[in-house]
Amino acid sequence: MPNKKDDVYGDHISEKFNDELTELKTQFLNMGGLVESQVEHAIQALVDNDGQLAEQTRLNDKIVDKMERDLDEEAILVIARRQPTARDLRLVISVIKMVADLERMGDEAKKIAKMAIKLSEEGQAPRGYIEIRHIGNHVMSMIHDALDAFARLDSEQALRIMKEDKQVDEEYQAAARALLTFMMEDTRNISRCMMVMWVLRALERIGDHACNIAEHVIFMAKGEDVRHSPMEETEKVVGR
């Protein structure tokens, strides 16, 4: 559970303002849930060689794009109507930035879906699917935990996500090296193996965006921007 001191978003004199902030957070979580589902389905489509699921996942990206536009518009209206300050302004600005991360996650899911469609047509690659499933599960967990950290304004959970991102980077690098070695040893499947490589890269980027959301959660909870800060400094901020 988040610390009491992390729960900085309380009630306002204006009930309408409360409703607007609640709606903003709800819309963000709804968009996050859809993106989480998109990533899951894209991975499933590729691993199961399901071209139909991949195509549906690709088409659903338009819904994610519309939700991004709607959320941006709502956030701008809140700023214009309420002129929020301090903690409320941090919330609204952070939502605008986190929405961009969610949209980019959706774009990466669409890329994975496109690779799944191509591989369903050309035949599966001989290597890389175990790594995709493993890194995919790790990244899916990061997305889920990032959304949960936002919902509960849990800076400690956000910190854990940031630490997990380094693990995903290491897993991606190890998988990429193994796949590259395989392609050098057997050049007959380079095209399909490159598609798998692009999928692994897309998953690594999704992990980066989940980490970005975690950084914004810490900013909302603690009032300090920890982007580009050493992990030791971020740990100090969260521990305050």
Automatic annotation (TrEMBL):
Residue span, PhoU domain: 29-115, 132-217
Keyword Amino-acid biosynthesis: no
BP GO terms, sorted: intracellular phosphate ion homeostasis; negative regulation of phosphate metabolic process; phosphate ion transport
GO cellular component: cytoplasm
Compartment list: Cytoplasm
One Pfam assignment: PhoU
Keyword tRNA processing applies: no
UniProt keywords, alphabetically: Cytoplasm, Phosphate transport, Transport
Main location: cytoplasm
SUPFAM superfamilies attached to this UniProt entry: PhoU-like (SSF109755)
Family: Belongs to the PhoU family.
Role of this protein: Plays a role in the regulation of phosphate uptake.
Oligomeric and partner information: Homodimer.
Record protein name field: Phosphate-specific transport system accessory protein PhoU
Organism whose genome encodes this protein: Marinobacter halophilus
